[in-house]
Amino acid sequence: MENVAIPIDLSAFVLSPSCCDGASKIAPITQPDYIGLRLDDSLIQHDVLDPIDFHLTSPASNNPRLTDLGTNPPQLLQNRLGVYLHWSLPRLYRAATTYADQAQKTPPPTTADPSQPVYPAVPNRFLVVRKLSAQQPAGKLPEFQTWVIESDRLRKINDIPDNVDLEVDVTPFVRYEGQADAPGILETQAEIFLGQRNEHSGWHDQSKGWSEDTSATATFQDGLTIMDSSNPLFPGMKRAYY
């Protein structure tokens, strides 16, 4: 079997406190609050995404993207500083096919509506390798370090460890369990997050081959496509920071 290399658009952004001092504005993070989809009078919202507050862009001590404003005095969020990688999914994953044309020889999936477009499943594992060409101070980080990104990993908010940053380590995701017409479906589809970053050394076992958490508590989004993400930026941006 031959390997197929597909080029993708990749960019890197270095985030540091000095980024807030220039002409460009580093906006605070805004994430969709899918709890606002519930039909409860005290929770339902006209928009699940709050507007960006550009008054908190600078200085860095006032920007919640870089600083924990809940501490006294505010503390810099060291885990958020560094290089952010952004990559776009190749065009083939953003193009759909339809089975409405009966002349096609390929039969549609038994559960698919022939009138609806079908998108291919996106890659669900990414291997990221970091090599440091220079270190200041020297010896603080290893020269090589690798991570595995599980882009289809699903976790409820109560199952996520406290050391996971909900604003940068994962992304909110809308997903219901069971039947779509089940009672309380709107209450169960929020507070779910997608994605998980793993140290490659712990995710890969040389003696057993590729391995990952397949326990009963591990949940994955089967056949994740660009239409499943609930995020319009998902096809054009995959994000990881190191």
Which ranges are low-confidence, i.e. pLDDT below 50, for 5 or more consecutive residues? none
Element-level helix/strand string: EEEEEEEHEHEEEE
Outline, from the CA principal axes? Answer: globular
In terms of DSSP E residues, the strand content is 15-25%
Percent helix range: under 10%
What gyration radius follows from the Cα positions, in whole Å?
21 Å
SS-derived structural category: mainly beta
The total strand number stands at 12
Major beta-sheet overview: 5 strands, antiparallel
What's the mean pLDDT score? 79
Distance between the termini: 32 Å
Would you summarize the structure shown here?
The chain has 242 residues and is mainly β.
Written overview of the protein:
- The structure is a single chain.
- This protein has helices at residues 185-188, 200-203; strands spanning 10-15, 67-68, 75-76, 82-87, 125-131, 144-156, 171-173, 192-199, 204-205, 209-210, 219-220, 238-241.
- With 242 residues, it is mainly beta.
- Strands 5, 6, 7, 8 and 11 form a five-stranded antiparallel sheet that branches.
Which SSEs are present, and which pair or pack?
Elements: E1 10-15, E2 67-68, E3 75-76, E4 82-87, E5 125-131, E6 144-156, E7 171-173, H1 185-188, E8 192-199, H2 200-203, E9 204-205, E10 209-210, E11 219-220, E12 238-241
Antiparallel strand pairs: 1-4, 2-3, 4-12, 5-6, 6-8, 6-11, 7-8, 9-10
Keywords:
mainly beta; globular; 242 residues; five-stranded antiparallel β-sheet; three-stranded antiparallel β-sheet
